[in-house]
Request: fold
Amino acid sequence: MRLLLISLLMLSFSCSAWSVENRYLYPLTHVKNVQAFSIAEDTNLVYTRNQNQILVFSIFNAWQPRIETGFTSLFSIEDAEMQAGKYLYVASREPSNQLIPIDTLATSGKIFFPSTVIGDKLTREGATLYIADRYRGIDIVNIGSGARDLLSTFSEKWGIRDFVATHPYIFALNDFGLVAVDISDQKNPKAIATNYQIADATCLVKNGNTLWVGAGKNLLAFNIYDPANPKLINQFRLANEIATLKVKDNLLYLALGRGGVKILGIANPLKIEDINTINTNFTVYDLTLANDYIFIALGKDGWMIYEYR
Reply:
């Protein structure tokens, strides 16, 4: 009986270890000679950008990304969003901004429809585009089939640093802290909660009923089961400042500048697990996720693809 109990305990431990360690990181490619301070993926296309240029790459062959097209912006690019692999929305603070196509000699024949909007930050959920502007607030825009119909504007004028929109709520970081907005009626958004005790926060991501916030070197977890009353439930200290947060399959991916990429297990937000680290030997400015791929923006050193499986 004792031997059977020990065997069962060992089996349970080995299964638990396998469930955490059964995935491995494989570097696939490093795209050089481009600047990538921000990176995004949409429908097997990777979008990289610097202050005045956006490049679009096909990752049909992830080992050899191929440039599809590119655009130069006359004024500084603040943010960008994509839709359906053909619509590109670029935010800047200049109303007269224009996007000029770059001759990339690509032969795919794929057509893109770029357009500019006035704002500082963008996020999209389905056919709804949310545009945050420091002076105007947050515009809620219907972009179905390429249209741009303004539904409403939420007057949040304290400088949006980052925000996530998952209907029926928006969670936004402004110059003073966290704001929760009820958008169940998109034509009449209402603020329902504020938390002005995290003034140094710069990025956030939502995973289930937990909101993860990056504030300098601190990772904060808020329970938002009751969106009108977010509660701080955990904190985690890192060696480097958090630049970007992304989440997938209960794993939190953190871009940490010279600290590379940290992968944390957050299935239980009260018990954060250190799962893995990517040491790129370059400064990591941004990252994004798609399927089993991790796309990493390295600034003047280009961008990389890792496979995690």
Observations:
- The CA atoms of residues 246 and 253 lie 5 Å apart.
- The helical segments are 2-21.
- Residues 1-19 have pLDDT under 50 and may be disordered.
